Predict the structure.
Amino acid sequence: MNAVASVHRAVTAPNQFVEVGGRTLAFRSIGEGRPLLLCTRFRGNMDVWDPAFLDGLADEGFRVITFDYSGLGLSTGEATYNPAEMVRDPIDLMTALELTDVVLGGWSLGGLVAQVALAVAGERISHLLLIGTNPPGHLVKLAEQLFYDTAVIEHYGLKEEEILFFEPKSEISRKAAAESAARIAERTQGRSPAVPIAFARANIGDGPRNPIFPADAVLEVLKTTTTPILHLGGDHDIIFPVENWYALNQALPTLHLITYPSAGHGPQHQYPRASAEHIASFMRSTR
């Protein structure tokens, strides 16, 4: 299948579907240009992305594709939160949509999936974009218990959004959280169903562990790859602390790090336009 890129903006992009590997994957596509495929976060679907960030990427010349994981949202199949199994979704979607020279992105759990994809299908990927995620292996700084206590709440309000994805101590960040939530709520038609809370709770654990992503083979790929890698982080990420990437700074030869101030786990929602511009600049300046 070779879907036509959509000229819609994020809040109006139609749901599209492709049959692949015995299941149906739901996706949306906006913009035209270099394909940028985004893997979403824990408890995420196509509707948790800030439209300002997606539209900003489209304005920078990307064809931006978001999707629902197998068995979640509007996709069918068997649901899993094991990155080694989840990786089938972006790889199969790239195949079904005949995408080449792909910028593969991932936020949080999606960033773990994207790293596995680089290890097993690196020939399809030109650049790796990681947002608020963890590297493989031993960590120098663990997640905070506050994340585990908050992430299992069934319905997030603005307070929970601030805790999980922003910096509650910062008035600027709290204001950005409210603005981002309002933008996300603008889409009223064709929304993806929420991830079932029972499934989420069964896949999170009750506290920090080390390592959280025990994938030595993936770490070796990151240490030897020639693929440019960009990580966008917040300076106070309670889930995947950005300090873990800085600890590997001299070990990962293609890693670029951007850390936003007074920000949390969703820096691209607090700084949507800046994030899009930084990503585009990274693309232009690396091969």
